[in-house]
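Below is the record:
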Amino acid sequence: MKIRIYEIADTKEIMKLFYDTIHEVNIHDYTKEQVAAWAPANMDIEVWIKSLGSKFTYVAEEDKIIGFGELEANGHIDRFYCHKDFQRKGVGKKILEQIELKANSLGVEKLFTEASITAKPFFESQGFIVIKKQEVERRGQKLINFVMEKDFKNS
């Protein structure tokens, strides 16, 4: 497995991974209506290119893209997804290690994210703690997620 920086040519594959993961993995914790709102079929590639390119986006690759994670300069981990066939195989951990190295080089003292019900156990296993449970709205659907953080100075 190789971890590298996102390239524009990765965008379609990342969008498919995002869509497939939500529709095939997160569906165990959310309704069909919720996952359809979260990852609609008609996503705009230009919006994704701009979004992925505006953050420190890391891609895990093993013949194909098997995961990706985004870090913002303030320590926020935005999208963080692993391919449905590569769950619980260390992909997320490797991406997070890269994010932590970058955060450390930026002088970030705290990492934080809004983890789905599905992702919460992974982030807990990596030293994140739940700050609060919240409800967010996506295209008219309410979804539960968890604001989580990891104090970086002491990790």
Q: What stands out?
A: The radius of gyration is 15 Å. The mean pLDDT is 96. Residues 19 and 92 are 17 Å apart (CA to CA).
